[in-house]
Design brief:
The chain is an alpha+beta fold. Among the domains are: about 90-190 and about 270-295, Immunoglobulin-like (Sandwich), CATH 2.60.40.10; about 325-545, SGNH hydrolase (Rossmann fold, 3-Layer(aba) Sandwich). About 25% of the residues lie in helices and about 25% in strands. It is built from 13 helices and 27 strands. Helix 7 packs across helix 13 (about 530-545). About 40% of the residues are buried.
């Protein structure tokens, strides 16, 4: 046995004690970060942007990507607003018009051609707008044929816009153009995310025995004299903070929930967000809004190559989604056909309630797929369903904070990157995720960083199991009310949609383009698309899992 009374050991222990003291002194930030939930004093903000939003420094590579992504989605400059705001000089959809341009050379339109529409915006006095930045959606459709395709809008930065459509079916096709937001409203939306990223109030309940306290939480938590609990994820570095309860420790947090909206507009800015006035209002045509499309010319290819490269990813015909850039979309109309496709598969769904819809669809469409009772929240999950005979497993897990959900157990707040890192993967594993709807109130930098952590996990998964199928759901347009515009505007979703596509471009992953599938459909835009659209989305997913065999 060694005696610790020896002077040389005493010297060693003194040295170690001094070393530990200085290590703790100079690495306080690291220790605070690593001891999740134990922080009981204000969080030091090391890298500040957007007022009080705290972000960890990025690697040089990630920082460059972030800057390039932000540059790529930069919106045209929008007008500064006078105080108080007046509608007179803002975009008025009632005065604005669109015109279908004649086919070049005066020839008739054929399947495979492109149709161009010129849109001219005016203000409430009927004067032409001189700048761009309005948010416009365009669609070409034929309700009788169950046909529809999204158009691409180009801002000329002078008050005029072009919308271009691919002509993909024979017969009548009608143009529809919608003003989602005037450019002046975008000015407000930008400012809200810059100055009020905490306008959705998240709250957590802390409980120990009979003592219970509720405090406010957020990624962007305003510094006050009140101490904060640091719930930053140890693995991904995703930040989350709560004000510390007065009488309880940070370790007693048990639930998280949406505490309501608390944003504020400046005087008269609410005029820019009026239903029927300037939120998702149809723009009328100058002349006819319809064209007649003839069969394709004999010497014309089935689909013009430039349509595939720069046009829509697909379109509806007879209410069925037809893909132009992915696999042939098969129709899975019976439980037996779906079961045959999913036989032996593990399908893991991660994301928000728009992904939960897919779990609910499969659970209802497959009588033999039995959902286990996990005693979890009916809306937030997690969920697990099993068909033992066919060896089919389907799971759903909400993504981590921020979540505008009803109460969810804090222990169930799992980040997608961590979930993906726990998967073995392989040819029988399908990973599906969608992350978009809960990020509208935050700076785009936060969304970029969340996707970067998920992408790293996806790359690791594909490196260890290249046969794993990864499918990503994009965001989609929705019904926009004044309240929704403040927190979940289609403009916010559009910006994040661009980031998502760029972030995963070039990886062996597949997209379910919910954006175009909702925009092109005759049903009203909805955060949670209606059943006919969900069925088409499920057919796209199953077509990736079980592609049509080549003859």
């Amino acid at each position: 046995m060694v005696s610790f009374n020896c002077p040389k050991y005493a010297a060693i222990f003194v040295f170690l004690a001094v070393f530990v003291f200085f290590f703790v002194l100079f690495n306080t930030d690291v220790l605070e970060f690593q001891h999740k939930g134990s922080l009981t004093f204000p969080v030091p903000r090391r890298h500040l942007t957007h007022h009080f939003c705290s972000f960890e420094p990025l690697s040089p590579e990630d920082a460059l990507e972030e800057r390039l992504l932000l540059d790529s989605i930069a919106w045209p400059e929008t007008p500064s607003l006078p105080a108080p705001v007046s509608l007179e000089q803002t975009t008025d959809p009632a005065h604005s018009r669109f015109t279908v341009l004649p086919e070049r050379g005066g020839q008739q339109w054929h399947v495979g051609d492109q149709l161009e529409v010129m849109i001219k915006m005016y203000d409430f006095r009927g004067r032409p707008k001189k700048s761009g930045g309005d948010v416009l959606f365009a669609r070409l459709h034929n309700r009788a044929l169950g046909a529809g395709v999204a158009g691409k809008v180009l801002d000329h930065l002078n008050g005029s816009y072009s919308a271009v459509f691919s002509l993909l079916w024979e017969g009548s096709a009608q143009v529809a153009v919608t003003l989602v937001h005037p450019s002046e409203a975008v000015t407000v939306l930008k400012r809200l995310n810059r100055e009020q990223p905490d306008r959705i109030r998240f709250q957590s309940v802390f409980r120990s025995g009979s003592v219970s306290e509720t405090t406010t939480c957020n990624i962007c938590l305003r510094p006050t004299a009140q101490p904060q609990c640091n719930f930053t994820d140890l693995t991904t570095g995703e930040p989350w903070f709560c004000y510390k309860p007065k009488n309880l420790s940070c370790d007693t947090r048990i639930t998280n929930y949406n505490g309501g909206y608390q944003g504020k507009l400046e005087v008269n800015e609410n005029k820019l967000f009026k239903i029927g006035i300037n939120i998702k209002v149809s723009i009328r045509p100058s002349g006819s809004s319809s064209v007649t499309v003839l069969p394709k010319n004999k010497d014309q290819p089935e689909v013009n190559s430039n349509i595939v490269q720069s046009g829509p990813v697909g379109y509806y015909y007879k209410n069925v989604w037809q893909s132009l850039s992915g696999p042939t979309v098969r129709q899975f109309n019976t439980p037996s056909v779906i079961n045959q496709c999913l036989k032996g598969k593990m399908v893991h769904l991660y994301g928000d309630s728009t992904v939960r819809q897919w779990f609910e669809y499969l659970n209802q469409a497959l009588p033999d797929l039995k959902q286990l009772n996990l005693q979890s929240s009916k809306k937030a999950g997690p969920f697990l369903a099993l068909n033992y005979a066919e060896n089919i497993l389907v799971t759903f897990q909400y993504h981590g904070p921020p979540l505008r959900s009803s109460s969810i157990s804090a222990i169930e707040l799992q980040y997608i990157a961590n979930q993906v890192d726990r998967l073995v993967g392989g040819a029988n594993t399908v990973v599906v995720f969608g992350v978009w709807a809960h990020f509208g109130t935050f700076p785009t930098e936060l969304y970029i960083r969340r996707l970067q952590t998920i992408r790293r996990a996806v790359v690791r998964l594909l490196n260890r199991a290249p046969d794993t199928l990864v499918i990503i759901r994009t965001g989609n347009p929705k019904t926009v009310t004044p309240a929704i515009a403040m927190s979940n505007s289609d403009w916010y979703s559009l910006q994040r949609d661009k980031v998502l596509r760029a972030m995963f471009k070039g990886l062996n992953v597949h997209l379910v383009d919910a954006w175009e599938m909702v925009l092109a459909h005759y049903l009203p835009n909805n955060l949670h698309p209606q059943p006919p659209i969900i069925k088409n989305m499920i057919n796209v997913i199953l077509s990736y899992i079980c592609p049509q065999k080549s003859s």
